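Feature request disguised as a bug report, sorry. It would help if multi-protein outputs had a clear separator. Right now it looks like this:
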Amino acid sequence: MAKTRIKLIICVIALCLATMFLWLGKTPFTTPEPDEPSLSLHSSQQEVQEALQESVVQEPVVQEPVENPINSSADNETDAPENAVSAESSQAPAESPQAPAETVNAWPERLTDAFPEPHDPLELPVEGATGWAAITMPLYSEANIESRVVTDFRDGQVFVIIEEQGDFWYVESSRGESGWVEHIGCLINLPDVIPSIVYNITNAYSALTRTSGQKIPGVTGQRLYKAWAYNPRLLRYEFVVPSLYSTSKLLFEAQQLALKSGDTIIMHEAYRAHASQQRSVNLIRELMESNDDVRSAIEDGPWSLNWFISTTMSNHQRGAAFDVSLGKVLSYEIHHNGSISFPKITEYFEYLMPTTIHELSPLAVALAEPVSSRSRDAWRSVPLSDTMTTGAIRLQRYFDGAGLTPLASEWWHFNDLEGAVIATELGIVGSFFIDDVLSVSP
């Protein structure tokens, strides 16, 4: 009888416990799983989860509308170059028109399947985009070098592209001059033709540049040049990011490869004026003279300062190089302006990279040892650096697939070697600072 009573008591207690757990919506036989990001790229669930858990930063980046990023650096004016423009000159109009947008959080098999059909050879047509003469060049009356010369464009002359015909653009300059230029010697504004890329030109508002993790006086946290303006084509303020026209086509191929895997390129710099670069070189040299740790990190080994920032002429000056990172897209919008529709990434995770962007020291090397930066394939015979992350390797794969070449000393830097050769032959030397945009809808 006693045993029966004990069994009955145990059953009652078990029943009470079970009822309590059911009432609380829990079970004592399972443990709660941690929250996971709500991401559903059907093409590769495992790859996405690995990327989010192992290779990206913990917080998503939301692309909030920015009125003026130059304001984010309190001490920018102290050491800004002479051409730097005050924050007030870049303020948005009181009522800026906004591009109608469709916000999308549902995921297709590939992002390229959901985005508007690209306008070969770029995401948007070149008509209506801003361009610049990268060298002094003639403006012709017809799309023919034998035709009458209307005027000569000086290097840095900004214009809007009206029409493309073979190797020529019909353009109209900021001074009202119109005619045909050979686009082989021209730069084009990347956001005008590849708006799906995330643009964050940190050197244009607060440079992240460091060496061996240390700040570079006069560089780190400073605005090194202006690259921010209201863009009527995109109906928003956006960075101004020039690149050789031929090089921009390779960048678009790299972005297409990234989008097919649910990723996006994050652009930190393309064209860079020679004067801005030389100023940074001089300030880094001053730091090396006063800081033995910085000097030895750069010079005591197979590398040198020239590997981390060119002390003479860089492919950035030629418009044939990019400094980039990589993000996993979480949401996007489709915007509309007149006859064009274009995507804008609104939220993403940035992959974990070996260092922050523009860490000018061996901490940021992509390869285990130096290799010729002028060879398209020499880097393939050298092992990757032990510090290369999954995100950095994915980034390298996209750019290699598009025909761009990684730099051994910087995980973020990629060269268009053919474009650089052509630019060198033409005499493009980055002699001008960018100014404004004249972009319109095509």
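(second protein starts here, but nothing in the output says so)
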Amino acid sequence: MNILILHTNLNAYLVLGALLFAIGVYGMARRRSFIGMLIAAELILAGASINFMAFSRFLAPNPAIGQIVTLFIMAVAAAEVAITLSIIIAVYRNYKSIDAEDVSELKG
């Protein structure tokens, strides 16, 4: 009996990472609110992180490199969320909406 074990298969991780990345890109293109765009951007970063970790686990001579890159991606994602939420709050205070089309005429 040959049972497919997913945690020992590089292709399973790559497909999952590509799926998350594709959902994130689709969400960035389709969402009109800033919160939806923020969630889609987080999905893109999660897909990239999964691919880094997968390549690190299966192909890299030093697996710590993929983990370090993933930690940097997580730090960038946390900073992105903090900055984006503060911008969303500032936009909501001025325009009373977080819809991207409503604030497309920003001057600055």
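Even a blank line would do. Unrelated, but nice: The CA atoms of residues 17 and 47 lie 4 Å apart.
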